[in-house]
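Q: My labmate handed me this sequence with no annotations at all. I'd like to see what the chain might look like in three dimensions before we decide whether it's worth expressing. Could you predict it?
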Amino acid sequence: MPDWFFCSVLFIFGLLTGSFANVVIWRFPRGESVVSPPSACPRCMAQIQWYDNIPVVSWLVLRGRCRECGEPISPRYPAVELLCGVLWLAAGLRFGMSLQTAFAIVLFFFLLLLAFIDLDTMRLPNPIVGALFVIGVGGVVFSQLTDIVALPLTPLGRGIFGEPVAMALLGALASGGVALAIAGAYALIRKREGFGMGDVKLLGSMGVYLGLYGVLVFFAGSILGAAYGIAMNVKKGDSLATKFPFGPFLALAGVLVALFGPAVWSWYLGLLG
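A: Here is what I predict for the chain of 273 residues:
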């Protein structure tokens, strides 16, 4: 298949999956089924027809309003769809036509769900984090048994670091362990929670996909989150006690590390000679 065709298919399927992501983000925290009933306007409850449910395009055609009641439809819906398409495309461009692309898509999709759910609810649901972990374990075991690299998405090392199962285990323990230790130290010193166990579980799950590079996710996410927190506190004049969800920053860091982590790390080691 020509590269352009492969990438185009990935982008289109990513857009379609983004439409489903919107359903999960809205319904899952409310305990509703993500498969039924069909999508409907949250204001007038009119069922959305298929021609009004084409990712991004329908929102533009309808000028961001419900066909039945004329009430505004949040621009976040097409934004999630477009972002999902871009993530699928990025996975294909980074990993090519391989099983790694499939597992990168899984990782990116789940991170997208968790980021927006955390934005809405300040929670990272255990079932979604757990599903991400279980799928990752399946990919690691497959890689170990077949010698076809599906996971980790980052390069293997030598010796024990060249075994997918060992790298996944080390990545999960290191990523989750570092986060847990720092969270515990923060709570002990500041007498309040810095970030929750949901963040620790998410980092452990990402370690399965990224190996020891999962530790970089924690530090990159912390830098991004700290920059955001400082900017918001300066803007609003609030104290540094203001709480905000950490999951979106971990999700962004996870995508960046999966795509660019090994290259950045190699560049850094090159600077050190």
